[in-house]
Amino acid sequence: MNRAARAFWLDSPGRGEIREVDLPEPGPDEVVVRALYSGISRGTETLVFRGGVPESQHTVMRAPFQEGDFPGPVKYGYLSVGVVEEGPESLTGRTVFCLYPHQTRYVVPAAAVTPVPESVPAGRAVLAGTVETAVNALWDAAPLLGDRIAVVGGGMVGCSVAALLARFPGVRVQLVDADPARAETAEALGVGFALPADADGDCDLVVHASATEQGLARALELLRPEGTVVELSWYGDRKVGVPLGEAFHSRRLTIRGSQVGTVSPARAHRGYGDRLALALDLLADPALDALVTGESPFEELPAVMPRLASGDIPALCHRVRYDDPAAGTHA
Questions:
Q1: What is the pLDDT along the chain (331 residues), one digit of tens a residue?
Q2: Alpha helix (H) ranges present in the chain?
Q3: What single-letter DSSP state applies at residue 124?
Q4: What pTM was computed for the model?
Q5: What is each CA distance from 195 to 155, 167, 180, in whole angstroms?
Q6: Which of 49, 115, 169, 237 is deepest in the core (most CB within 10 A)?
């Protein structure tokens, strides 16, 4: 079998390229995966593309199969879906999800791939990593029956959280974003929508995912006394002011950080594999297709990434499609 592959590398901040890769021979406990799709999470990946990862976070921000180092050259990404071409009989021919960068084929340990349920299309499965983040956030947040909840920030992570909260019985969920176009996404996900100035207050819980100072301030304003903001935003190398004056202390508000790199202490008995498998099961819901807002071929990534980073291409999750010249078609 041809062991050649192509991979997208960030050569230097703001400039990407496609490089030829020679794959190693797979070992007895490894698989060869042919990519069908990968996803670009506009928040984290465009921050990496701009060179915005602080030096203090270089180790924390490493992706599982990253090559190179920040700010570059670096091969970065973590939302890949493909078909196992070689490996254990139980996996050969299966569609799988892997936390791998944008590459046409790759060799990884068999334990690093998770089978995609038959109820989940391969193109939707690229959302697994982000839905996994939402699962972890809700394990941290522990919403209760009948809670009044706002999700401030209608990006990929915020929308994933809102989509899962829409399944909670008796919960009032409102997606809050400065972009009126997010109202259509909220409707598709089955939740309410409001611009920041119009959002409903007296919330028991606010999940903040806008990565802006204004969004965090508004999240605190929307809380009832003794309410909690779960902070999901990744600010990179930016300094952020937090409004801890005025009524913050008298109202006894809480700000709690949540990050997918660690399984929530509330579910410490569950492993990373359990969490990812749950996220893939949840992706059987076709409403989540609303989070995929664009698609382009792998070969166009060097031109597409700068446009995603600049906002010229507005996106939640931008999907990358891998054509298979050998088959003459794409999956």
A1: 567 899 999 999 999 999 999 999 999 999 999 999 999 987 789 889 999 898 988 998 899 999 999 999 999 999 999 999 999 999 999 999 999 999 999 999 999 999 999 999 999 999 999 999 999 999 999 999 999 999 999 999 999 999 999 999 999 999 999 999 999 999 999 999 999 999 999 999 999 999 999 999 999 999 999 999 999 998 877 788 898 988 899 999 999 999 888 899 999 899 899 999 999 999 999 999 999 999 999 999 999 999 999 989 988 999 999 986 443 333 3
A2: 42-49, 122-125, 128-141, 156-165, 182-189, 213-221, 272-282, 301-310
A3: H
A4: 0.90
A5: 14, 22, 7
A6: 49
Query: Is the peptide bond prior to 73 cis by the omega test (within 30 degrees of 0)?
Result: yes
Chain CA centroid to CA 31, Å: 24
> Three-state SS for 212?
coil
d(CA 113, CA 273): 9
Query: Per the structure block, which two tokens stand in for 286?
Result: 């076709």
